[in-house]
Amino acid sequence: MIAFANVNYFEPWWVQIVKSIVIFAVVFAILPILIVYERKLLGRFQSRYGPNRVGPFGLMQPLAEIVKFAMKEPMRPNTSIAYLFRLAPVISIITAIAALAIIPWGDVQHIFGQRVGLYGIDVSIGPLYVFALAGISFYGIMLGGWASGSKYSFLGSMRGAAQLISYEVSQSLSIVGVLITAQTLSLTGIVHAQRGMWFFIPQLAGFLVFLVASFAETNRAPFDLIEADAELVAGYFTEYGGTPFVAYLFAEYANMIVVSGMAVTIFFGGWLLPFGLNPPGWVDPFVVLAKILLVFTFFVWIRATLPRLRYDQLMSFGWKILLPLATLNLLVTSIVVVS
Amino acid sequence: MSAVLFFIAAIGAISGAIGVVMMRNPFYSVLALAFHLVSLAALFLLLRAEFVAAAQVVVYAGAVMVLYVFVVAYVGGGEQLASGAVLRILGPLFALALAIELCIAMLGAGLKGVNSRGAPFVLGFGTPKHIGNLFLTKYLFPFELASILLLVAAIGAVVLARRRRGLEPDEQAAYRVEAPRPAYTGTMAEAAGLRPAGGEEPLKPEVEPVGTTTGDATQQQGDW
Question: Distance (Å) from the C-alpha of residue B62 to the closest C-alpha of chain A?
Answer without folding.
Answer: 4
